[in-house]
Fold these 4 entries.
Entry 1:
Amino acid sequence: MSSQAKRQKGISVTRPFIYGNVATTLTGKKAAESDHTHKWTVCVRGVNGEDVSYFIKKVQFKLHETYSNPLRSEFANPTSLVSLPPRTIAVSPAIENPPFEVNETGWGEFEINIKIYFHPLSTEKAVTVYHHLRLHPYEDDGSGQPWPKNRPVVSYNYDEIVFNEPTEAFYQILSDNHGLTSILPLKRSTKESAHPFSVQTEQEELEKLDAAQREVNAQIERLKERMTQAEGELNALKQEQPV
């Protein structure tokens, strides 16, 4: 075994990333030329837009089979749906290099299979994640008002890749690019197309969980009190019954 392939025993390195999609409603001429209702982008990238190509080699996106070329990779030449003129489709053929994304249009939601390949020196197998393409908001805009037609619908997932006992060569690459490691921003972004992940969001979710746990505990205590009261009443009735 070469020194570069030797594993770093007892060492784990974590690299966070996000994957998901942004969708907007088609308007004007593009909407009139087809039955497509939305344009969307599905991607894999750093939490804050950092370059992740030092550990991610390439990404394949498997779209719905109704697309004429559903498997998008560096070898793919994305084309439009058979029923739609090519000029109405935006494509992003260079998926072996950042940004790792696919731009398309369509009218339906479906599950996208995303296969992530790592740097060859990592000797790690590719991993697959799944994302449900989201085109519709399914909720109000947060102020109780209907979702604005021109506001993007954002659906991202936060995940982390853990490289356990990486090879010496790959560990050196990870170390050299440590400055590119994503960290969660302190505050939630106010940009409409931004992901929702932040220290603030994490704290709010923890507070929600804590409040829910307190409510569950309170309900359990109330049930215990009712059971104790019911047992007392039952014992009293038994004592009143003649032997």
Entry 2:
Amino acid sequence: MSKGKGGRGMGGMGGFGGGGAGGNMMRQIQKMQQDMLAAQEALANETVEVSVGGGAITLVVTGHQRVQSITINPDVVDTSDPEWVNDLQDLLVLAVNQGIEQSQSMAAEKMESITGGLGSIPGLGGLLG
């Protein structure tokens, strides 16, 4: 005998209705999403600072991997020396790359504290941080 609409099936919700463990899981997922959004907003105001070349260049990068400032120490600049200009360019590239890497690490740690490692599940493509 088949059960009609009044039967005791899954309630049309695939087991994730408003009550029981499924409802609790949905609330946890929604809270995690809210926490992740708040963390993303907070990262815009958090920064990392990188100094290269013995203090020749200092760079500040936000948690969103945006360069906020670059400071070149005027005491070490010699623009009349072509070799120094090349070195300065190399130092700028190094500083930007280090700043971005440190900013990404900071963001990943923040997301990891919220998701508890869920961001590394294959197939999610970084959707969780």
Entry 3:
Amino acid sequence: MTDILSASVRIATPILLAALGGLLCFRAGVFNIGLEGMMLIGSLAGVAGVIWSNGSVWAGFLTAIAAGVLVAELFAFASIRLRANYIIVSLAINMLALGLTSFLLKAIFQTTGALRPPVINKLPDIDIPLLSKLIGKQSIVTYFGILVVLIVRFVMRHTHVGIKIQSVGEAPETAVTCGIKTDRIKTVMLLICGALCGLAGAYLSTVTVSEFTENMVSGRGFTAFTAVAFGGSNPIVTFLVSLLLGFAEAAGIRLEIMNTGMSPSIVKMFPYLLALVVYALGTSIRNATVRRKSGG
């Protein structure tokens, strides 16, 4: 049981990081489904940083965060400065990431398909007494993600900054009337989202595995958006949904290893089917809540 819980947490970590970034954007009124592309750019940047620093994972993380912020700045310029549609910009970011990572692999590293650093100094997993007996040793990135959950919850519920962010998302015209710089807040939330997605991508390519492969994010950005859609303004719920989605993927991998006779294609569908169910359930609950509050 500990093994599958440990795997669930590891798999959920990049989903959680990206989902928290998406949640901040959502609360500021930015509909960002470009999490997938930001993560993919971060995955390549993470491995590139490791190579350029002769094996430092920390350098990989920093490079990935910088790359994620750069992509987020592009998103902000197109959607906030130029007033382009959020969904169109998100789709463009996702498609750009697919093409750009393939191009950079060949242009900079003279390779195609995959990129593996010759040396990588992996970070030791953290052993927390009692907790490690349940979920095993985990990366420092995992515990950083949990810390971000708590920070986001505190900021949104107990600070003036959180009130401003939510007012920008829920009543932008009123926020402008009150003197709140809505464009600045949206841009900052996008930049934070880019940083978290970049780190999530680097986690995939330097912690989960030790290489970058084309399209290695494999839909995890869209899975993260499912956690955002269900969690809404609650980072704790987003965290729990991320864990559930991580568990679904871990269970699918376990079923493949056990050779149960089920088709591998069906097994691989489990996380995405669950994501679809979670998204539909979250939308239904949110609509019911809105109707109840409006007296319908």
Entry 4:
Amino acid sequence: MPVLGFGTAAQTPPSNQLELDQLVPIFIDAIEAGFRHFDTAAVYGTEQPLGRAIEEALRRGLIKSRDELFITTKLWCTCAHHDLVLPAIKESLSNLGIDYVDLYLIHWPVRMKPKKINFYYDIADVIPFEMGPTWEAMEECQSLGLTKSIGVCNFTCKKLTDLLALARIPPAVNQVTSHQLLNQISQAKGKNIAQIALRWLYEQRVGIIVKSFNKERMIQNLQIFDWELSEDDHINISELPQQRVHSGGFIDPNGPFKTAEEFWDGEI
């Protein structure tokens, strides 16, 4: 898996054909800039334009084969049901116009009532997550060759432990969100804050997903490999306070997750 990936989530999912069409050249720009790992999701609404960009990149000779790319997509909560996982990945593959993805992830440890995938949802649709049956279906996706690897997003240590106890195929990845406050170091290094954050993550030996639809910033995001942070920089960054602040909007007094502490299994 390429250590640096390109995120395709828009601020709001594309709502019409014009908005979809506008994303295609952005993704082509990312391929031209040098990105080879693309991170999408069913709920992002960007699988189809990414698929069209891949097709165009092949036509132009920007890549020689689909195998040069590492494609990640994700199972949305409304499809986190044993009998809906396989149809969901097949729909994603159809949207992308490819035969397999390199990595298929459970987007959240959350299940919703089955319905059309939508970025906006009613909290009343959130129901308890059934890890075992959902993961069993994810394993089937890998066994069928529809994805090379499977994994999760936003899982706590407790949930990972619970999953490892029942999994036949262990998760290859736990994708999480990470933010760093790095203004002082960026000024000293002559780099922008994003580059400092990306370099720090790179030196932690983790895979990174970045997102910018601006071509200049795409190139800047790739310019992190020919310099390094000092030992003092590492100490200062590591001492920054950490807290889980994003819960996907799933917290509700009347839902399965009544508090952030409950959602994150107390790991906040």
